[in-house]
Design brief:
296 residues, alpha/beta, Arc Repressor Mutant, subunit A, D-Maltodextrin-Binding Protein, domain 2, two-stranded antiparallel ribbon, 44% helix, elongated, WH_DNA-bd_sf, DNA-binding transcription factor activity, transcription cis-regulatory region binding
Length: 296
Amino acid sequence: MMVDTLKVFVMVAEMSNFSRAAEMLCISQPGVSQTIRNLEHEFDVKLMHRSSKHVKLTEAGEILYSKAKQILEMYDAAKEEIHLLRNEITGSLKIGASFTIGEYILPRLLAEFIDEYPQIEIQTVIGNTEEIERGIRLNELGIGLVEGEVNHPDLLVNPPFMEDEMVLVAPLDHPLCSRNAIRPEMLQDQYWVFRENGSGTRAFTDRFIQDSKLRVRRSLVFNSSQGVKEAVAAGLGMTLLSRWVIRKELEAGELCCIPMKGKRFARDFFILQDTRSIKGTMALKMFMQKLRQFKI
């Protein structure tokens, strides 16, 4: 079917890589290559410049990419309208989520959503806020759920869908764990464990340290919340993490939560969409509706 061929072409164009496109489509790389060769033979023109590292569209390829996107959108819209005649909601969703949301909240949300709409195909990508933002802008993702601040002219940042409590945590033998509550100045010259740059959690922590004018004695950086948790439990320093991330460790008595006098740490979770495709599909509309109603 020509639609399947165009899906392969569009995926290669958006991934700029044959191997990544094959992984995303769950087909072999030779199969992807053959599909592109068949398309070039059909149009009798070169559609892509290939190198060992990336793929770049030719002028003809850019034309086909633009039209292929329109054709695929029309095809999906037709499928949705036909299925709606039978009161069925179908389609596909590409959801991107930053780590805290993707690992601790999204699975619960999807369990309920899939139960209500079993015919919607869902693909998820988990990365830091910066990576999810880029995926939306490159049209690799249909919707993004992030905890970090995002400002870009091509992105619509919807009102928050959930508030997240952040917690100051430390190893059990940390001197401040014996305190009922502390003041910010008591955190001077501490060892800290951070998430990587581009993470919403890292941005929140950096802002707290800067606003509190804290000196950091030493810091370690991990690119996952799990790595941060393990480092803190091993005595390498303190950190700020979502309560969702460390709730089991707190209940098991494996980490210490340090409250701060008169201060509660909180941040918002946001929905990202591309301003060029806000309308979305019926599947996306149903997911947005579920997201707004979801309670944990």
